[in-house]
Amino acid sequence: MEHFTLLLAIVIVTALVFDFTNGFHDTANAMATTISTGALKPKTAVAMSAVLNLVGAFLSVEVAKTISGGLINESGIRTEVIFAALVGAIIWNLFTWLLGLPSSSSHALFGGLIGATLMSVGTSGVNGGVVITKVLIPALAAPLVAGLAAMLATRLTYRVSARTDEKATAKGFRAGQIASAGLVSLAHGTNDAQKTMGVITLALVTGGVLSPGSNPPLWVIVSAGTAIALGTYLGGWRIIKTMGTGLTDLRPQQGFAAQTSAATVILASSHLGFSLSTTQSCSGAVMGAGLGRKGGVVRWSTATRMFIAWGLTLPAAGLVAAGAEFLTGHGTWGVTVVAILLVAVSGAIWLASRRRPVDHTHVTGADVVPVNVGVDIAASGPTVAGLASVDAATAGLTTTIPGPVALPIPPAVAGESARTATV
C-alpha cells in the first residue's frame, strides 16, 4: 500500500459518491412499478431493493473487468483522469435526478471516462471496439428487447388470466411483482455496483497499487455494494414518480411482465459482460408493458424527454469530464478547483430540489391542496366567503366555490354587536 496517495483516496471516495448517486438515481428501475400498482409500500420497496443490490454486488465481476480492463487503455492513464470522469458522471446524475428523468448512470460513467481520457491522451486511450460492442450496441438493443419481451409477456398474462377472477388475479400478480422486483434489484447489483468496482480497480491500477488485469479486491466489492445499497434505500422519489406513473398507467399484470422481462435482459447481459443501462432496460420494459395491454397507452411526451436525455448522456457527461480533466492537468490546484466545483454544483442542485420536494408520501398520485372555507359575519351584513380548490395533476381540474354570498340578517339580531367566526 506504499503507493496509496491522497489523490487516490480522493478518487476512491468520489467513486463511492457516484455509486451512491447511482443507487438513488436507479432505484426506480426495480421498484417504480411495484410501488405504482400498490404491491409494496414505498419505503418497504426501497429497503428490499437496497438489500438485494448489496447481495447482487457479490455475484459477479465480469462487468467490473469490462470497465477496468476493456473500455479504456490502462497504460498511460493518470489517476486524475478517473477523478475527472467521476465528476462528469456525478453532475449529470444529479442534474437528471433534479428533472426527474430516468437517464442512464452507466452511460454517464462511460461518457465521463471517454471524455476525460480523450482530453488526457487522445483517441489512443479509448478502445473503440469495446465501446461499440459492449456499450453502444447494448444501449440500442436493451430497451428494444426488453420492451418487446414485456409487450408479449403482458399479452400472454392477460390471455392466461382472462377467465379467472379479476381480484384474485390482481392479488396473485402483485405477489409475483414482489418476486420479480427483487430479481430486478439483484440484477441491478450484479450490473451497476460492478461499474464502480471497475472504476476503483482502474484507479488502483493507475496508482500502482494493483497490477493491470487484476480483479477487484474484496474491500472494493464490499464498499461499492454498500454505497449503492445506501443510495437505493434513500430512494430517488422523483424518478420513481416518472417511471411509475409518468410513462403509462400500470396494472399488476403489466408490472409483473415488465419487471420479469427487464430482469432477464439485465442478468443475461451481466453474464456476458455487457455493461448495459439498467435504466434503459427497465424503461423499455415499462413502455412495452403499457402497449401490451388492450387500451393501454404510453405518454410519449414523457418518453420523448427521456429519449433526449438518453442521447445527451454520453456526450454531456463526457464534456463535463473533459473540462474537469483540463483543470486537473494543471496539478494540485486544478484538482482542488474541480473538487470545490463538484461540491458547489452538487449543493446548488440539492437546494434547487428543495423548492419542489418529492418524497415517498406522494410518488403515486396527485398532490392535494387543503380545502379552506372561511365564514365571516359582520354587523354591516354577514357574508360567507368560501374557496375550495383541488389540484388533480392527472386530470387538471380546479373546482372553485366563489364568494361572497350575502346572507339575510334576522330582525332579532340586527342590533347586535359585530362578531366574527372562522370555520
Task: Give a written overview of the molecule.
There is one protein chain. The chain is mainly alpha-helical and about 425 residues long. It has helices spanning about 5-35, 40-55, 60-70, 80-100, 105-120, 130-160, 165-205, 220-235, 235-245, 250-270, 280-290, 300-330, 330-355, and strands at about 370-375, 385, 405. A 3-stranded antiparallel β-sheet has the order 1-2-3, with no helix packed on it. Strand 1 and strand 2 (about 385) form a beta hairpin. Helix 4 (about 80-100) runs antiparallel to helix 5 and helix 6 (about 130-160) packs antiparallel against helix 10. The longest helix is centred in the middle third of the chain and has 41 residues, at about 165-205. The radius of gyration is 26 Å and the shape is elongated. The model is unreliable at about 365-405 and about 410-423 (pLDDT under 50).
